[in-house]
Structure formats: structure tokens, C-alpha cells
Amino acid sequence: MNFHKVHHIKGQVRVPGDKSISHRAVMFGALAKGTTTVTNFLQGADCLSTISCFQQMGIPIENNESEVLIHGKGLHGLTRAQQPLDVGNSGTTMRLLSGILAGQEFESVLTGDASIQQRPMGRVIEPLSQMGAGIISIPGNGCAPLQITGGGLTGIHYHSKVASAQVKSAILLAGLYANGPTAITEPQLSRNHSELMLRMLGAQVSSQGTTVSIQPEPVLTGRPIQVPGDISSAAYFIAAALMIPDSEVRIRNVGINPTRDGILRVCRDMGADITLENVIDTDGEPAADLIVRHSRLHGTVIGGSIIPALIDELPILAVLACFAEGTTVIRDAQELKVKESNRIDVMVKNLSAMGASIRGTEDGMIIEGGLPLHGAVIDSRLDHRIAMSFAVAGLASDGTTQILDSDCVKISYPGFYADLRKLTL
Ligand code: S3P
């Protein structure tokens, strides 16, 4: 797909439901007793993989697009799948499901696409093994496919080396099935959607600083869940409006959970004009309309404890940094190397091809902003966030930007190009 420079972006957009929350609504709804009705569920390929895995384990799920109904069977209601469970491209499905399967008295195999089979699973294999699960990487390289023989779990207090909500959630979910309390301490606080939703469904979860603990065998009860818009999807419109002269957009109903709002803090620090209206709170998940206007930006340093609160937004922030005066340093972000692609390599290669001054480091990137960008052929490496980042870059660059495998955006935002186009009219 090709992109060209536009004069402005203007208007309103409503981004699809939050990916992290949509996954959790299906998984936790399946473990609750009774029906969980999810509104504004993200109909992206990753979340559809989660639905299909739970259907294969005997959970009736009705997907009516606007509403998803999960008829949960309680903590011990899952049954063994007849086939290996295929998570597609979804790291969240793979890692959270590993935690749930560690608690089941049956054997499972978890697999997925070529990208997921290269991502590190040792980070869940280690703690779940310590709890007593039989969990092995079938190819023996710490990656999927995984074979999991669950049951007989012991509660542990795990100190994780990475700030990862996927690891934290896997351990908490296994903790539902342990013989005593389970705790996890992470180096920085990662997104806390699991804690909030599990508590809302009836689990005893307590958080103190970067430690979360959970009591086993709660009775979880299904209930309505409203999913706010995904700030990680809103990020592309935020950046586009800031970068492109004469732009102003209103992005409706965006989740602004403080463990996810790092992009707003960084953009404001760079001089961005972003205001919030209609702030609401649904069961501890706050949301608001974001009004974003074109702004003169300056470089900044992005590192330390804010990284987990914007980890998925770093590709588009790297694009944004090219349009800011001065130097932007992204550091402490080595996790970028193990996402759907190696996002440090891919950003450096593609932004360099467009004429940017960017250098990769061990744990991030250094960008000298202010150089005009020109079009190039961009290999998305089938990474949805790379494709969306360069679509936005293309709207602010001379010449033609061609994105290869552009339809990979279906992972998290199937209507992305249509929504972006509407704002350019
Ligand atoms: C997610 C956690 C993050 C994030 C991913 C979604 C989640 O991954 O990058 O897109 O839903 O828990 P890590 O837990 O690996 O940091």
C-alpha cells in the first residue's frame, strides 16, 4: 500500500477496543461462572485467536461483533483441546494461556506463527516450572511450540527480571490454581489490567508497589465488561496530528490507565498540545477523549520506569522524534528486540531509508530530529505496529512510501487505513 504527503489531518475517530483488555475479558470470562458480556471487544486477529483457543477447550463463546458473550464454566471448567492450540501471532495469548494451562489437570500443546515461534518463552517456562508445572519448549530453544502438563501447583514469590505484564499475568493465573498465595515482583510496574479485572470478577489480588499477590481458588463470577479504546492504536493518530501542520483530531473514548499512558506524558514533555475531555471510569479503567493539535516539538529522553507504560508506542514515538527539533534518546527498551519483530533493527533500517538520522543502541535508539523525510519501500516484517508507524510517516514525507505486507494491521486494528484516510479528507 502507498502513502503520500497530506496537508493536514482533521476530524474525529473512535479507535477499536483495547487489545490487552479484550484478551483478558475472554480468558477471565472463561474462568468465571456465568456469562461475561464484553462490549467494544477488539475484533483483531490476535483476540480472535484467544476466542478460538477457549472454544477449543469447551467454552461457548458467541461473537456478535458489537458484543462478545463468554459462557464461563468456572476455574475448573476447561477441557482438553483435541488439536494443538494455535495462538497465531499473539504473544499475550501464548503467555497468559501458559499460566492458565499450568493449572489444568490435562496436557496441552501451544503453537503459533513463525514470529511467535521465535519469541522467548523461557520467561514463563521458568516461573511456571518453579510452581510445579511440566512445561517444555518442544524445539528445545526456549520458544514455542510448548507442551504443558498442568496441575499440582505450589504458590511461589517470583522476582522477575523483566517488567512484563504477560509474565506477571501468567504467574497470577497459575496462582489461581496453587496450594497457597502466589506473588510476583517486577523491576518496574507493567500494565495492570489483569489485576483490575481479576479483582472485579471476585479474585483476591493485592498490589503494593511493583509486587502483586493473589490467593488461590476464588469463585469468579461473570459480569459485563466495557472495553475502552486502545491507546496503542490511538498513538498513530496522536503522532500524525502532532507532526502534520494544521492538524487537529479528537480521538474518542481512549483508555488512559496510568500504566499505559506513557505516550501522553512523553508527548507533553516534547511540547505537545493534547487535552483530555469527557474523562470516565469503568471499573478502574479510566478513558477520555483526546484532542490533539499540531505542535512544535523538541527532543527528549525516554527511559527508566516509563518504558513499560509506552513499550508498544516506541516505534511511532521514534517516527515522531524525526519531526522534533534536537535529539531524542530512547533507552532501557531492550524488550523492543523481542516483540513481533526486532523493533530496534526495523525502525533504524526503515527510518534511515527515509532519510532520518537514527542510530540503534543496545537498549534503544538515538534520533536527531528535524531532517525532512522522503518516501521509501518499507518492509513491515509482518509487524502491525511497524506498518502503522510507517503509514503515518508516509503522510508527512515527500514522495511515495510503499509498505509491504500492509495488511498485517489486522492483528490489532483491521480498519486502520480506512480510519486514517477519513481524517485526511
Ligand atoms: C501486553 C504486554 C506487553 C505488550 C503487549 C501486550 C499484555 O508485552 O507489549 O503488546 O497484554 O499483557 P510484555 O508483557 O512482553 O511487555
TrEMBL record:
Quaternary assembly: Monomer.
Subcellular location per the Swiss-Prot or TrEMBL entry: Cytoplasm
Chain's gene name: aroA
Domain of life: Bacteria
Pathway involvement of the protein, from the record: Metabolic intermediate biosynthesis; chorismate biosynthesis; chorismate from D-erythrose 4-phosphate and phosphoenolpyruvate: step 6/7
Residues the entry annotates as binding 3-phosphoshikimate: 19-20, 24, 164, 166, 312, 339
Principal location: cytoplasm
Domain Enolpyruvate transferase: 6-419
Name of the protein in question: 3-phosphoshikimate 1-carboxyvinyltransferase
Functional description taken from the UniProt entry: Catalyzes the transfer of the enolpyruvyl moiety of phosphoenolpyruvate (PEP) to the 5-hydroxyl of shikimate-3-phosphate (S3P) to produce enolpyruvyl shikimate-3-phosphate and inorganic phosphate.
Transmembrane regions: none
Record's keyword terms, sorted: Amino-acid biosynthesis, Aromatic amino acid biosynthesis, Cytoplasm, Transferase
Cross-referenced InterPro entries: Enolpyruvate_Tfrase_dom, Enolpyruvate_Tfrase_sf, EPSP_synthase, EPSP_synthase_CS, RNA3'P_cycl/enolpyr_Trfase_a/b
Species of provenance: Diplocloster modestus
EC number(s) reported in the record: 2.5.1.19
Annotated phosphoenolpyruvate binding sites: 19, 91, 119, 166, 343, 385
GO molecular function ontology, one term from the record: 3-phosphoshikimate 1-carboxyvinyltransferase activity
Similarity comment text for this entry: Belongs to the EPSP synthase family.
Reactions it catalyzes: 3-phosphoshikimate + phosphoenolpyruvate = 5-O-(1-carboxyvinyl)-3-phosphoshikimate + phosphate
HAMAP family reported in the protein's UniProt record: EPSP_synth
Residue positions of the active site: 312
